[in-house]
Amino acid sequence: TKHFPVRGRLRDLFSRTPAVVHAVDDVSFALRRGRVTALVGESGSGKSTVARLLAQLHPRTAGDIRLHGTSTRVRGGRRFRAYVRRVQLILQDPFASLNPVHTVRHHLTRPLRIHGNAGRGGEELERALTDLLTRVNLTPPERYLDAFPHELSGGQRQRVAIARALGADPEVLLADEPVSMLDVSIRLGVLNLLQDLKQRLDLAILYITHDIASARYFADETIVMYAGRMVEGGDSETVTQAPAHPYTRLLTGSAPDPERIVGAVGGADASRADRGGGEPPSLIKPPAGCRFHPRCPQAMRRCATDLPPRLTIDESGHWAACWLFDAATVAADPPGSAAA
Ligand code: SF4
Ligand code: MG
């Protein structure tokens, strides 16, 4: 859970109780090596905050983040440092994340040194650098080592950012919209590289995206977030092809032909997809009950007051946080009876 305090004028509007933005509430999931988990949601749904929490860039408001069962509640210390090395973040904009005055060599040498993977320097360092560039298919490595970021294409820069993350010898990659700033024509290449690294290095990857169609193509498991909460999860094929939660159905229903999008990776846009169905709520005063209820065509009376728990849909692990999957609720109050 992560709540940000609200300062300044916005705060005055809600001055009775100290105002907070409920950016992330009760988000809980497991990443596993050799698997990609997609976290899908529109902008403002809290997915980037989840990535920053997992990268330990923000302290959390409540809850814990564990690596192999080991808590990271205590910041600093040996366990915390081990975690920070093992869990690496890749950002959306490779141009912003690389320093324009430094070469590729400089960007890659630092993590190798910091994390003790540079060998004894000299030839060993050179071999480690060459290995990193080869792993991300920037070959021949000599051509890229002394280049500056502006001399590379967007796709090449993102590959350098991935190589830099690999320099720490991670177990987990957190990839926050890793291809959304890239030309559509090269997105697939970068996603395929991540897929390949997942297999070869047995990485756990968290793939954050607003593009639910790419989650089907790229992720083993998909989790959908709405207004700071997880609303649906399961294997990607099921969540994208047979979505259960009304919000996920809204996202997928407005996407153009999925087969076509899989070819191009990058069409079904969560931020565009749901314009037709209203706006996401304020996270300063999120709606009570189900946060989607003001927009939900199937809302029942209970939805406005009671937070729906995660309800199991089938044995495959598919679940949705929605009262539609509670037989007693549906029997008492027909779906849609409380819709706006
Ligand atoms: Fe939320 Fe109720 Fe709609 Fe389910 S039916 S998404 S619980 S408002
Ligand atoms: Mg974001």
TrEMBL record:
GO biological process: peptide transport; transmembrane transport
Gene3D superfamilies named in the record: P-loop containing nucleotide triphosphate hydrolases (3.40.50.300)
UniProt-recorded Gene Ontology molecular function terms: ATP binding; ATP hydrolysis activity
Residues spanning the signal sequence: none
Annotated ABC transporter domain residues: 8-252
Key words, A-Z: ATP-binding, Nucleotide-binding, Transport
The keyword Methyltransferase belongs to this UniProt entry's keyword annotation: no
A Pfam short name: ABC_tran
PANTHER family: ABC TRANSPORTER, ATP-BINDING PROTEIN, TRANSPORT ATP-BINDING PROTEIN
Name the UniProt record assigns to this protein: Peptide/nickel transport system ATP-binding protein
Source organism of this protein record: Micromonospora siamensis
